[in-house]
TrEMBL record:
<dbReference type="InterPro" id="IPR040007">
    <property type="entry name" value="Tho2"/>
</dbReference>
<dbReference type="GO" id="GO:0000445">
    <property type="term" value="C:THO complex part of transcription export complex"/>
</dbReference>
<feature type="domain" description="THO complex subunitTHOC2 C-terminal">
    <location>
        <begin position="7"/>
        <end position="205"/>
    </location>
</feature>
<feature type="compositionally biased region" description="Basic and acidic residues">
    <location>
        <begin position="264"/>
        <end position="322"/>
    </location>
</feature>
<protein>
    <submittedName>
        <fullName>Tho2 domain-containing protein</fullName>
    </submittedName>
</protein>
<dbReference type="Pfam" id="PF11262">
    <property type="entry name" value="Tho2"/>
</dbReference>
<feature type="region of interest" description="Disordered">
    <location>
        <begin position="223"/>
        <end position="322"/>
    </location>
</feature>
<dbReference type="GO" id="GO:0006406">
    <property type="term" value="P:mRNA export from nucleus"/>
</dbReference>
<dbReference type="GO" id="GO:0003729">
    <property type="term" value="F:mRNA binding"/>
</dbReference>
<dbReference type="InterPro" id="IPR021418">
    <property type="entry name" value="THO_THOC2_C"/>
</dbReference>
<comment type="subunit">
    <text>Component of the THO subcomplex, which is composed of THOC1, THOC2, THOC3, THOC5, THOC6 and THOC7. The THO subcomplex interacts with DDX39B to form the THO-DDX39B complex which multimerizes into a 28-subunit tetrameric assembly. Component of the transcription/export (TREX) complex at least composed of ALYREF/THOC4, DDX39B, SARNP/CIP29, CHTOP and the THO subcomplex; in the complex interacts with THOC1, THOC3, THOC5, THOC7 and DDX39B. TREX seems to have a dynamic structure involving ATP-dependent remodeling. Interacts with POLDIP3 and ZC3H11A.</text>
</comment>
<dbReference type="GO" id="GO:0006397">
    <property type="term" value="P:mRNA processing"/>
</dbReference>
<feature type="compositionally biased region" description="Basic and acidic residues">
    <location>
        <begin position="245"/>
        <end position="255"/>
    </location>
</feature>
Length: 322
């Protein structure tokens, strides 16, 4: 119980889920349905999204070391879960009904015990990440010429099982088709079983009736610094200035502050200021500009250097007593 949520989920997959999934294809179906029920029943400590995410991290590397029956079983298990996730992805109304407010989608728990859940757009970005992670894993095996027989076979077996829910991105579909065609052509006459599996997968890929998305349709990319239309530039979003320029700005601002105080003091004492009116207006304009946090003052290192320099000057200015 002292472990983090991610570590608990990894332990749950390795000790409870995988042994049952690999036993047979019917056990894989049972395990996938169990995971879905755990989500639907709102089990407090079961995080559905973390489970699926960890599944792709921990399980995909194991595919290359399985028997053909085990590859069939794990392919069935992944297909059921990914198809269910894709169902949530396809409609915001279904997502709100079956996911919103569920413990399985909690992304953050605050100190006051309130929680923050993954919203619909964030979930769509996760689905995009899973699609790309699957493609990367299969591409790393199938793109290598004369790769090990077991690795290529298991990848083709799992990909065939995942055909209803992967790939769904237009660019990925094209790349996967090229990979399968390459395996079909290069293995023909050498390892005919692999060539036949690749040809069978290609037929299934082209016959399936599923929507194919552009990347922009599948999810909305997260913009780091969105700029609002017809609005002034948000100064907090501007990249920090280099240290030397930041220090020059700080010195300039200090000089303006001193000049402004001196001008105000002269007006109070003498009724007029020695600083020209035009210069006063420019100084007041510069001082009225907002200064973001990262532009205010000197860097800590430069501040320390300045203090050391002042100490050295004081020591040098003191007369030496004979």
């Amino acid at each position: 119980l002292s472990c983090s949520g991610g570590q608990q989920t990894s332990s749950f997959i390795q000790t409870c889920v995988l042994p049952r999934v690999l036993f047979s294809e019917s056990d894989a179906i049972y395990s996938a349905k169990l995971i879905i029920i755990l989500h639907q029943q709102r089990i407090t400590l079961f995080q559905s999204l973390v489970f699926i995410d960890k599944l792709f991290i921990d399980v995909l590397p194991l595919i290359c070391a399985l028997t053909e029956n085990e590859a069939n079983a794990i392919g069935t298990f992944l297909q059921i879960l990914l198809s269910h996730a894709q169902r949530w992805h396809s409609d915001s109304a279904i997502f709100e009904k079956e996911c919103e407010g569920f413990p399985g989608l909690v992304s953050k728990t605050r100190q006051d015990k309130t929680t923050e859940s993954v919203n619909y757009e964030s979930f769509r970005r996760l689905c995009f990440k899973w699609q790309m992670r699957l493609y990367t894993a299969f591409n790393s095996v199938l793109s290598v010429e004369n790769n090990e027989y077991v690795q290529v076979r298991n990848c083709l077996v799992v990909m065939t099982k995942l055909a209803p829910c992967f790939p769904l991105l237009k660019d990925v579909v094209e790349n996967v088709e090229k990979l399968a065609e390459k395996v079909r052509d290069t293995e023909k006459g050498k390892r005919d079983e692999l060539s036949l599996k690749a040809a069978s997968y290609l037929v299934r890929l082209k016959m399936r009736n599923v929507p194919i998305y552009e990347a922009s349709q599948f999810h909305r990319p997260l913009m780091k610094h969105p700029v609002k239309q017809n609005s002034t530039l948000d100064r907090k979003r501007v990249a920090p200035l280099p240290p030397t320029m930041r220090e020059d700005r700080a010195d300039e601002r200090k000089r303006d502050q001193k000049a402004h105080k001196r001008s105000a003091r002269d007006e109070e004492q003498n009724g007029h200021s020695k600083v020209a009116r035009k210069d006063r207006e420019q100084i007041e304009s510069r001082l009225s500009r907002p200064v973001s946090h990262d532009r205010r003052g000197l860097s800590p290192t430069r501040e320390k250097e300045r203090r050391d320099e002042k100490k050295d000057r004081r020591k040098e200015s003191k007369p030496v007593r004979k």
